[in-house]
Write a structure and sequence with these properties.
about 20% strand; six-stranded mixed barrel; alpha+beta; about 55% helix
Length: about 425
């Protein structure tokens, strides 16, 4: 491009350093570069942390939830084995497992905690989610045996109840239907009979998500069927698919091809508000942080105006030697662009370095200050890894450069308006 012809580039680069007796301008130039670099570092680091947080939330949710859930209109699915065979024939479906879900209370030594009980078939459930990865070793879901009334508790839930492996807890359900024979031989239903059952704690799990660790427990599905008198019904089927982003497609395909009535949900609808809020947060954060880079970039305005003032006599001489106003303007655009490029390159390099090591840096600060920044009761998860997305880095770098170039336009235009005669009159 003509703007980057050798003469403009050479003189523009030579003007980055002010006169030897004017160190203040050199300091302002350095401050502009540092400001742009810091803005880029902060933006890359924060967006990488948000990306990592979002991916961590999604990964943990999908290990604890299913990709697609199949049930009936009243969340009670009959003939689950037949339904399971049907959905396994759908495209992209890798596995399917039945489950029973109930809200109950767990009690031990005077401590009572509301809990979501999950009745599962260990042999099938292990193919669906990642709960086995979170269970304390060497135990696994296989510790749940039909008829033994064993239970696996979330780590926080076990701590709240004050129990450990080998102890027992009492399950309390709000009510259980009971038929009472009256004196006249008629039957009435008593819904106030409490359901009580002792379970043996065989393991705990820690998913690093407060909603699960503090309020979820697993039992064998047959125990749940006997306990809640489900007969042959279950709450539903959990499905695992080969591509999580095809959940909607699989949902519609099952609905279209099913031989019965289904109530279908998937992870995108179950957690839609959460992930939409994260995307909105990321967008707003980007807009706010880009303003930081904008402020630093527009420091170039004052820097270049000072340089224009400092170099007025040089500009006048160049004009008398035949340099056009457009060439003078290009000279200062090159100068400001180079400063912006230096700041951007430094910022991207250090930003990537900080983002890659952010987990270790945060851990070091937590140990130093004896304070946990990511509290599970607030943020749902206790640890995240950063995720660097190339498109984010490119957008940040181009935005920083664009703002830097934009900031050079006014000083460059002002330099092009310098009149040789006026500039040299008092020199």
């Amino acid at each position: 491009m003509k703007m980057f012809q050798p003469l403009s580039v050479y003189i523009g680069l030579s003007y980055i350093k002010a006169k030897r007796d004017n160190h203040f301008i050199s300091f302002i130039s350095l401050a502009s570069v540092v400001g742009i670099a810091l803005g880029v570092i902060v933006l890359i680091t924060v967006l990488s942390a948000v990306n990592g947080y979002e991916e961590g939330m999604r990964d943990r949710f999908l290990k604890m939830f299913s990709h697609v859930t199949v049930s009936d209109s009243d969340w009670q699915l009959p003939h689950w084995e037949k339904r399971r065979r049907e959905v396994l024939e759908a495209k992209h479906v890798l596995a399917a497992a039945p489950f029973i879900e109930r809200q109950v209370m767990l009690k031990e030594a005077g401590k009572v905690q509301a809990t979501l009980i999950q009745g599962v078939v260990p042999e099938l459930e292990k193919d669906i989610g990642g709960i086995n990865k979170f269970i304390s070793k060497p135990t696994s879901l296989n510790a749940l045996k039909a008829g033994e009334y064993n239970i696996i508790l979330g780590a926080t839930l076990a701590k709240t109840l004050g129990v450990k492996v080998g102890d027992s807890v009492m399950l309390l359900s709000p009510s259980k239907q009971a038929f009472i024979i009256n004196d006249d031989g008629t039957q009435t239903v008593d819904d106030q009979t409490p359901l009580l059952k002792d379970f043996n704690v065989v393991a705990t799990f820690k998913a690093d998500m407060q909603v699960f660790d503090s309020g979820t427990a697993y039992i064998h599905m047959q125990d749940a069927i006997d306990l809640f008198e489900m007969g042959e019904d279950v709450t539903g089927l959990r499905l695992k698919i080969d591509d999580i982003f095809k959940a909607q497609e699989v949902t519609y395909a099952i609905a279209d091809s099913s031989s019965g009535d289904y109530l279908l949900t998937n992870w995108t609808t179950q957690n839609a508000n959460l992930f939409k809020s994260l995307q909105l947060f990321k967008t707003m954060l980007f807009m706010i942080l880009i303003l930081i880079i904008g402020i630093a970039a527009f420091n170039l305005v004052s820097t270049l105006i000072m340089i224009v003032t400092d170099k007025q006599s040089d500009i006048a001489i160049l004009r008398t030697l035949g340099m056009s106003p457009a060439q003078v303007m290009r000279l200062f655009i090159v100068q400001g662009s180079v400063l912006g490029l230096i700041g951007t390159v430094i910022g991207v390099s250090l930003g990537l370095l900080v983002a890659v090591n952010l987990t270790d840096i945060v851990s070091w600060f937590e140990q130093l200050l004896n304070y946990q920044f990511l509290k599970s009761e607030i943020h749902q998860i206790t640890q995240i890894d950063t995720k660097i997305i190339a498109s984010d880095v490119i957008i940040i770098a181009l935005s920083a450069l664009a703002l830097a170039i934009l900031a050079t336009l006014y000083p460059a235009w002002k330099a092009s308006k310098v009149q040789p005669a006026e500039a040299l009159r008092y020199d």
